[in-house]
Amino acid sequence: MKFKTLFGAALLASTMLVAGAANAKTLVYCSEGSPENFSPSMNTTGTSLDAARPVYNKLVQFTPGTTQVEPGLAESYAVSDDGKTITFKLRSGVKFHSGVNGFTPTRDLNADDVIWSFERMWKAEHPYAKVSGGSYDYFNDMSMPDLLASIEKGADDLTVVMKLNKPNAPILANLAMDFATIHSAEYAKFLMDKGAPEEFDQIPVGTGSFSFVAYQKDAVIRYKAFDGWAGKPKIDDLVYAITPDATARYAKLQANECQVMGYPNPADLAAMKQNADIRVLELAGLNIGYLAMNAQKPPFDKVEVRQAIAMAIDRDAILSEVYQGAGQKAKNPIPPTMWSYDESTVDYEYNPEKAKEMLKAAGVENLSTDIWWMPVQRPYNPNAKRMAEMMQADLAKVGINATLVSYEWGEYRKRLQAGEHQMGLLGWTGDNGDPDNFLAVLLGCNSEGKPNGQNIPKWCDADFNAAVTKAVEITDQAERTKLYQQAQKIHHAQVPWLNIAHSTVFEPIRKEVQGYKVSPLGAHEFQNVDIAE
Amino acid sequence: MPSDTTIATQAAPPGPLRAFWRAFRENRGAVVGLAVVVLIVLIAIFASVLAPHDPIEQYRGFTKLPPFWMEGSDLRFILGTDAVGRDMLSRLMYGARVSLFIGIAVMAVSMVMGIALGLTAAFFGGMVDVVIIRVMDLVMAIPSLVLAILIIAIIGPNLTNTIIAVTIVGLPRYVRLVRASALTELTKDYVIAAKVSGVRKWRLMTVTVLPNCLAPLIVQAALGLSDAILEAAGLGFLGLGAQPPTPEWGAMLADTRDLMSSHPWVMAFPGIAILITVLAINLMGDGLRDALDPRLRRS
Amino acid sequence: MFRFLLKRLLLTLPTFFALMFVTFIMIRLVPGDPIEVRRGERGISPERLEELRREMGLDQPVWKQFGDYVWGILHGDFGTSIISKTPILHEFATLFPATLELTISAMIFAVVLGIPAGVIAASRRGGVYDQSLMGLALTGYSMPIFWWGLILILVMSNTLGLTPVSGRVDLIKFYYEPVTGFMLIDSLLSGQKGAFWDAVHHLILPTIVLGTVPLAVIARMTRSSMLEVLEEDYVRTARAKGLSTYRIIGVHALRNALIPVVTVIGLQTGGLLAGAVLTETIFSWPGVGKWLVESIGRRDYPALQGGILLISAMVIFVNLIVDLLYGLINPRIRHAK
To answer: Which positions in chain B touch A393 (Cβ < 8 Å)?
Structure first.
């Protein structure tokens, strides 16, 4: 059995660790679930990406706590004038973790590792392309196969030249995303020779601030500090305690069984803020929760009906009972922390009387419709069921009879994308902080005027589409801002979806924890964290 | 399901109702159980009259109110309100309707199917028997909650499907019980006598044998009722039972799980309702068993 | 004895095969798709979906998939999880000890408290002890355990701070690798001071919650079985000879009264192995029950199939042991055939 040897190695590594760790500083993070594997290129869930992040780096990265792009493994980069060539200069002397899974690197990071990492996702003939059932979702979602013309070694071993088929404004932000993680080509070869390539995605070796120690499914992941290019972290051991239940995570935090926890229960926030041992960090999340109205199904094809529904739903009540204060009412489809946010939008007010009149004027009476709610908790919507129940009651007051519909999560989204709903709840968490990632991805249409798959309201507006299509191909941010604000104005007038809320990301931490920053992108990062004695 | 009920395979001869009542009355617990069950049934039937509020009306601005004895309560909502401001007491009352309906429906369908399959297996024997018993074994071999969840995943979560899933999972107990009782009866003299005198198979099954298998079946049905209520609540707790805004007790519990540490009482009441109902039915079931099983009746 | 065993094993084979087939079909009837479900709000294009389904062999006709599956199992290969890409046997092997440890601990709890409770109740039939013990037992039996678990967490952990909320070990104070997968044993093997008590501490609440129903069933069963035995002639004779009640119960009656109780214990153990789903969910206990339910949600076909098969095999195995024990306690059964 391959896994026996793997296990033996981990055991050896861990006993050595324990021996040397008398007064080690350990930070425990109460995480919400088990990772699928440790290769970010294959994962889309925050849980899995969080688990791999301590081990790895990217060419460029987001400055912790922001959506700004800063140099990572590339110490510098240059974009050509036509926007189609990017040249990365790699740092020299970047070390890979040594001793994990019996692997000892013989060389530092170079261009081969970068090319290897991208080609795994890109080229079907790559030796690792099919390992672990390889499906490289983000790489495809970000249209990288269409964008990339070539990735080659430059003038020396530490230069990488990336050529694109067309200019793309958000490309650097995209490369700061986790899918663009740089792996060790040497480790890959080592495992291939050993005949165990699938271990590549289970036992990660990277350049990050923490090296992998052990993982027990549904229980714990352990890392130890690594003195790499970014310097040795201040904590010695990093532990992810996998605790799916939010109430249990909070209790553990209170008992100092963990020092940082993700995804608190909104209902518990009040008590957490009272607790002197706990600091509750908060940051406006880069997300939107919305109620889509299917513009291809009458009567929602009438803009007056959509506006009436926007006025019939008491979003303030939803904010207080569903988000319990952990969110802000949304008036635009992009969050206010994102550049190009249109401050001038005047939100629809809650006015059931007027809504009733408008419905009557539009000839809609005794409407029977549906509201779909997703069966899972999402960052932008802590309780879709409760939200749908409240909307159902609100709509009843203006004479609309809505039944509640739900399906298993994968099925739910598939049916929404197929446009089977009349009204449906969904939302989005941003990937890279670019407005294109919201407006074009979620509301865009193709050249024939057909809605894209992600376009849940099934709404196509020629002016809106022209604006967002043009904005992605120019690099001047002021110019882009104008276009995106125009798009937001159209969205407000047309209400293809009712903006409900941008949830606030709350992260309770023990008061001893220093240097922890909440990420607007939902990442949990620990390289700069310390624990006060 | 306590397996001690299966001991009761040798049923008492069908005595007059009065004798049964006398025996049943001896067990104080059983009488209390019966009284509580009757009370709950009455509440369920007259929920629309008794409940102070509409169970799905949301009183905005009155959310998460505590029950009357706690500070900050509002006497219009005696047991407080839930996360969206619905009256807890009214929801509990209507919830009794849902839970009892599920329980009784499961029990009725299981009885009918259990009798049909069990008698068929016992009378026809051979391949028919083998097939029925094997299928039942199969159902029992899959972890019951996992099986129920699988079934609901296939046919979709709603009230009817909860009944179907819980019925399928519990059916083997009924089938095996009927089959075992019938097989015991079949060896008895009166059945052999009836056979010899040319009573036809159908009549033999339904008129001669069945009544003598009823005693343990009734006990099983009472306990099956409480099991069904518990299982349905468990499914509701996992979000796979009755859909919103139906006031189902298990779903009410699940809905308020996020309020567990901040507003514990919201979670307490549906659980207490389930416990009291199931306990009362079980008390009654014990009484039934003691009254129907002569061996345990007196010593 | 050996032949008896072999016969029993052979008898389970057709059931096992049918089980394999039925779960296979059922799982494929569940709407949804393992690829779709992973994608969250991102979605997937139909072309890409087809491609991935082809790679996973999900586009093959069901009978072919089933054939491949059976062929794999005959070669000891239970398939690979679609989500984590690790072999099912490996996943099962890492999670099963947690379930087994919890089950054993819950059964010990149930037996240690249940049998004495039943005996006391029987020996004081109709008295205060009998009534209150049996009242408690019936309450335990009627308990919705998911609610019971939450209430215990609320009171014992959140309010009183007596027990840990979830998990199996204090991750800051202790670090040892799983050797056996049983925390109680691993903590001792680790040689770390206090590790064992830490592991015990974590087991308390889940044990109580999972053990409540079996405790009630065993207490009730012991009582009724005991009452029956006390009616038998040899006990009456012993009583007539003037033996003390304790001696009668301890020496003569208990041994015979326990025979049906053993069966119940076996059935309950099997039930717990398979049915710890709710308890594991509430306590974030990394066991197989929770894994199975989550696999349904993730449409992880191989995990679900393999998991159900392996769990059922365990249940069958436990039942076999019960039969053996039954034979040992009650020689009449062994000689009868």
So the answer is: 56-58, 84
Residues 184-213 (A) with a CB less than 8 A from some CB of C: 198, 201-202
Closest-approach residue (CA) in chain B for A267: B259
From the list A360, A181, A349, A382, the residue with the least C-alpha distance to A263 is A382
d(CA A528, CA A95): 19
Is the interface score ipTM higher than 0.85?
A: no
B17 domain residue, yes or no: no
CATH of the domain at B270: 1.10.3720.10
Q: Which helix (H) or strand (E) holds A368?
A: strand A368-372
Q: What is the pTM of this model?
A: 0.83
Minimal-distance CA residue of chain B relative to C225:
B4
**pLDDT one-digit tens code per residue, A14-30:** 444 444 444 689 999 99
CB burial string A123-146: b at 16+ within 10 A, e below: eeebebeebbbbbbbbbbbbebee
User: What dihedral angle (degrees, nearest 10) is formed by the CA atoms of A49, A53, A54, A56?
Assistant: 140
What six digits make up the tokens of B36?
A: 């509580």
- Asked, for residue B9, whether it belongs to a domain, the answer is no
CB contact under 8 A, A393 and B56: yes
Which tokens in the block code for residue A112? Answer: 């081969």
Rounded to a whole number, what is the distance in Å from the CA of C94 to chain A's nearest CA? 7
What are chain C's domains? 88-157+204-329 (1.10.3720.10)
Decide if B12 is inside a domain: no
Number of domains in chain B: 1
Domain span holding position B264: 27-296
Whether B257 contacts chain A with CB within 8 A? yes
> What secondary structure, in 3-state letters, does C248-273 show?
HHHHHHHHHHHHHHHHHHHHHHHHHH
Tell me whether residues C144 and B143 touch, CB distance under 8 A: no
Q: How far apart are CA B266 and CA C151, in angstroms?
A: 12
- Asked if B258 lies within 8 A of A382 by C-beta distance, the reply is yes
Cβ neighbours of residue C120 closer than 8 Å, sequence gap 6 or more:
C129, C130, C133
Any idea where the domains of chain A sit in the sequence? 2-259+512-531, 287-504
Domain made up of A287-504: CATH architecture: Roll (3.10)
With beta carbons less than 8 A apart as the criterion, state whether A483 and A499 touch.
Answer: no
Task: Report the phi/psi class of residue C294: left, alpha or beta, with left for phi > 0 and alpha for psi in -120 to 50.
Answer: alpha
- CB B162 within 8 Å of CB B235: yes
Under 8 Å CB-to-CB from A96, ≥6 apart: which residues?
A105, A108, A109, A184, A186, A187, A205, A206, A207
**B241-259 pLDDT tens trace:** 888 788 999 999 888 888 8
pLDDT in tens, A305-358: 999 999 999 999 999 989 988 899 999 999 998 999 999 999 999 999 999 999
What is the CB neighbour count within 10 angstroms for residue A298?
A: 12
The Cα–Cα gap between A219 and A221 comes to 7
| B20, part of any domain | no
**Residue A279, φ and ψ in degrees, nearest 5:** -110, 135
Euclidean distance between CA atoms A461 and A494, whole angstroms = 9
Q: Which amino acid is at C124?
A: R
- Cα separation of B122 and A181, whole Å? 66
Residue C122's contacts (CB-CB under 8 Å, 6 or more residues apart) are C130, C222, C223, C224, C226, C227, C230, C257
Q: How far apart are CA C139 and CA C137, in angstroms?
A: 5
A2-259+512-531 fold: Dipeptide-binding Protein; domain 1 (3.90.76)
* Contacting residues for A522 by C-beta, under 8 A, at least 6 apart: A46, A285, A286, A379, A429, A505
In one-letter notation, the amino acid at residue B110 is: S
Reading phi first (left if > 0) and then psi (alpha if -120 to 50, else beta), residue B126 is in left
Are C277 and B145 in contact (CB < 8 Å)? Answer: yes
